[in-house]
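=== RUN LOG ===
request id: a7f3
mode: sequence -> structure
chains: 1
length: 238
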Amino acid sequence: MRNEQFIQAPQSRWLPLPASVSEQPTARDGFVHGLKRRCARERRRRKVGRAYDMALEIARLISRGSEVLDVGCGNGFIAHHLSAMLGTSVVGIDVGTSTEAAIDYRSFDGIHFPLEEDSVDAVLLCYVLHHAQDVRHVLNEVRRVLRGGGQVIIYEDIPATWWDKGVCWIHNRQWKNRTGPCTFRNELEWREQFESFGFEIVRERTLSRWRNFTHPVCRRSYALKLNRPGNLNMQASH
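=== RESULT ===
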């Protein structure tokens, strides 16, 4: 039997490499993939962690078992954590069609809260009011769904210094095409708004601007109590 020699033709530079070669991940590909996965995990950890810290603060102010509405709930993690802390189901509403966290989520048309009158014991407005195009209407809706003696927990950015005003200006540029222009108010202006709608300010405090390193602005939290039930259709100054 004669020996036959097989000569392999050289691979043309115009033809793709075999799938087994071209699809094989390199060490660089593995490093980049791992880095992206870790960055995504860290972003999620910070997002969920910040929501947990806020929920913990809020839970100290609201009685366990209270029925709570989170207006502009965003990703839903505050409502998710708070549900476990209060032992109840916190309802979250926003203008989107869904949310990330597993909560009782209801889509909001931006005008009317999808709840009945006098149906909740507390309402959360976490960095939401400066997005409202008509803050009077939002506060009227809060009054409508809130039971007499109910609570409102509010977090807001306060442009106290030139730095804060710059950060708020950037925030407005980022959001005005999605939710409309933002309106940031100082402490006195917010206090006048709340009191004109019949809310009693039972607690307020200044928060560190470094609570979120990506948005370093002066912040303030308010705890309000509704002394007069019902919807007064107040016409406070915008």
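=== NOTES ===
Helices lie at 19-22, 27-59, 77-86, 135-145, 162-179, 187-196.
The radius of gyration is 26 Å.
=== END ===
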